[in-house]
Design a protein that fits this description.
This protein is of the alpha+beta class. It has helices spanning 10-16, 19-22, 31-34, 98-101, 107-117, and strands spanning 35-39, 44-47, 53-61, 67-76, 80-89, 94-96, 131-134, 141-146, 156-162, 167-170. The chain is built from five helices and ten strands; from the N terminus they run H-H-H-E-E-E-E-E-E-H-H-E-E-E-E. The chain is globular, with a radius of gyration of 17 Å.
Amino acid sequence: SLPQRAPSDVLDFYLLLPAECLFPEGVRPDREQALKIKDVPNGYLRLEGTWEGYTEVALFRKADGSALIGVILSECGPGCEQKVRFLEWGGADWRDRTGEVLPEVTPAMLAAAYRARKESGDEDFGQDVPAVYVLPRRGTTVRIQVQPEFSQREIILFELKWNRQRFELKP
């Protein structure tokens, strides 16, 4: 049953999100049981379940006070494939705003950023850097980093800073 009042926190929006945004095809877990991290005050959820991988959901406030919901579905094993979406609730349906709020980050940009940060002993990925987007549990900066499975240390390639309208790329 949908809440009668307008959704206000990350949990309200999570319960309204279509399952295909949150879970891999054919995976439809109980929504309460899928919650691994439930940090409503910070507007952050992490879901895990019967699939290899995880989903992050985070709430970003726009300048007018309305909400933008980031959803990143990660299917892993061994590397992670991600679907990164930023959605806006229209009162009756969801609108995909990903193209409007997220700057394009190309494989060439990722490769150049990795080369600039690479130290001896780090893997040589060439043009194919295994990067993942990470939603913030605190703050409003989305990180793009090398997948932890492929690196001995945390290597942040880009930060995407939320300016209450869209994300700005900070190398």
